[in-house]
Design goal:
Layout: H1 3-20, H2 24-34, H3 38-48, H4 50-59, H5 61-64, H6 68-90, H7 92-102, H8 114-127, H9 132-143, H10 148-173, H11 178-201, H12 204-223
Helix pairs in contact: 1-2, 1-4, 1-11, 2-3, 3-11, 4-10, 4-11, 6-8, 6-10, 8-9, 8-10, 9-10
Length: about 220
């Protein structure tokens, strides 16, 4: 896959990510097609999607105005989760061995509070990230009754923060392919900047249905 196609995939990923939170539906397979092994594609994808965060935040300024406190809270929770997710990814083999050695039976977990769910979404974003946007969009949508465009804007800054925190770890400890990051990140910046405008002008109900269907399609593709 050439750099031009990486750029195009980045635009598609940025558009999907800023609207539905499914950037990795486009970007991760594109990086695999580019020739990167799965682990390198994963960390490169997370790094490149910083472009989605910047573009989406720039395009969502009207929805974010006056909601700085809420956005900051979600960003902090996702930052904690992103750091946890990156640590889990980088130490996954050690963790697996310890879990196998410990093998304890546990009781049923209690229902997690909203903050815990947001941190968990951030952790998943830092670990892998495919579909993290739609997970966080669902959590925020259930917690806060507000227009989709606003929930989407908060979701974008949250997932962007989780990515940014994870990238700090990946820069020093993971095989990030910086050339691919450059081209895909540029495309993602453009695509994500356009996404909030699309959400703003389209009718809310059909967009919600489209996001839900895209989420099911993503889940089915992962299971397949």
């Amino acid at each position: 896959m050439s750099e031009a196609l990486l750029l195009l995939a980045g635009v598609g990923a940025g558009l999907c990510g800023s609207i539905a939170g499914l950037a990795s539906l486009v970007s991760y397979p594109a990086l695999l097609a580019y020739g990167l092994p799965p682990f390198a594609a994963n960390v490169t994808n997370t790094t490149a999607m910083i472009g989605t965060a910047i573009g989406a935040a720039a395009g969502s300024r009207p929805e974010l105005r006056g909601r700085g406190r809420r956005a900051a809270a979600v960003m902090l929770q996702c930052a904690i989760g992103g750091a946890l997710g990156a640590a889990l990814l980088l130490a996954r083999d050690v963790i697996r061995r310890r879990i196998d050695a410990a093998a304890q039976t546990r009781g049923r977990p209690r229902s997690a509070p909203w903050t815990g769910l947001t941190v968990a979404a951030g952790a998943y974003g830092g670990y892998f990230g495919a579909g993290v946007g739609i997970i966080l969009l669902s959590v925020l949508g259930l917690r806060d009754r507000e227009p989709l465009a606003v929930t989407n804007a908060i979701k974008n800054v949250g997932t962007g923060t989780a990515n940014a925190v994870a990238v700090v770890a990946y820069v020093f400890a993971a095989p990030v392919h910086w050339w691919a990051v450059l081209w895909m990140g540029l495309g993602a910046l453009v695509g994500a900047w356009c996404g909030p405008y699309v959400v703003r002008v389209l009718p809310e109900r059909p967009v919600r249905w489209a996001i839900a269907l895209a989420g099911y399609a993503r889940a089915a593709s992962l299971l397949w």
